[in-house]
Amino acid sequence: MSSSAEPVLGRPDLGLPELLSLERIEDNLFRTVVVSDEPAGLYGGQVAAQALRAAAATVAGDRHPHSLHGYFLSRGDASRRVLLTVRRDRDGRSYSNRRVIAVQHGVVIFNMVASFHVIEDGLDYQAHRLPEVTGPQDLPDSQIATRLRGVDIRVPEQPNADQHWPSRVWLRARHRLADDTLQACALTYVSDMFSGLSLVPGRPHVGPLTSIDHAVWIYRKVAVDDWVLMDLHPESASGGRGMYTGQIFSRDGTLAAGIAQESLFRSAPQH
Predict the structure, then answer these.
(1) What phi and psi, each to the nearest 5 degrees, are found at residue 98?
(2) Which of 3, 110, 139, 144 could form a disulfide with 154 if both were Cys (CB 3.0 to 4.6 A apart)?
(3) Is 84 left (phi over 0), alpha (psi -120 to 50) or beta?
(4) pTM to 2 decimals?
């Protein structure tokens, strides 16, 4: 339930540390901040990142998120807080599993399962490599309009020269992120913004799409307050749905994360 006392954080310079902050109401119940003065659609990456942070707050400090799977169920309102309830499904010797349910106005808008793992030594291999594109230091700040707050965007060369909406972007949080958990939440925050469906033939003007489900695998720790490259690729389009996958690399080419998302992808333009 909203009230006139809710903090309204509508500043364009809002940083991710503030946006991803949570009020802890009970051990397993959290409340988010408000980011808009007026009713507006709630960005899916924001609620996913906040849900991950709530889950992480219930896990031992030596365990780090390595995967999350979420479903977007109803349109959220950025002018109201979200209640996040965490279910502690399992705490094993090296893994913990959590479920998070996000509610507004008594309606579930998002649910997520996240897994956390104690860091272990092991074989280190990555199949994907950083694409050969211009580095962020040699690109101008992008003027593309997005719902990302507190994030710098720079757009390198795209796989197709006539793309209206990029599938390959450099991203960086403008403010320092204090710990590995906040870095993982920031990675989740940016992971829902762009789309590999921009590369589907016959749909050159794809923009932001309505997400159905979203998954992130965090392979290695990454500093999102330094530049990371997100590189997305289409997998399938049929039946009014589109599926894409992608990778997030650190600036030195380390494969930090994998992404998979299914979105609405209908023939008629979305409004």
Answers:
(1) -135, 145
(2) 139
(3) beta
(4) 0.91
Distance CA 108, CA 26 (A): 19
Q: Which of 157, 132, 153 is nearest to 144 (CA)?
A: 153
Q: What angle is formed at CA 218 by the lines to CA 217 and CA 220, rounded to 5 degrees?
A: 145
CA 123 to the chain's CA centroid: 27
pLDDT, tens digit, 9 for 90 and up, residues 227-238: 999 999 999 999
Residues 6+ apart with CB under 8 A from 171: 148, 151, 152, 153, 190, 224, 227, 228, 229, 230
CATH superfamily of 16-118: Hotdog Thioesterase (3.10.129.10)
Q: What residue ranges do the domains of the chain occupy?
A: 16-118, 142-264
142-264 and 16-118 share a CATH fold: yes
Identify the pLDDT of residue 175.
Answer: 94
**CA count, 13 A, side-chain hemisphere, 155:** 15
What is the rounded CA–CA span in Å between residue 186 and residue 52? Answer: 10
- d(CA 136, CA 172) in angstroms, rounded, equals 10
* Cβ partners under 8 Å of residue 115, min gap 6: 65, 66, 67, 68, 95, 96, 97, 98
CATH superfamily of the 142-264 domain: Hotdog Thioesterase (3.10.129.10)
Q: What is the pLDDT of residue 164?
A: 80
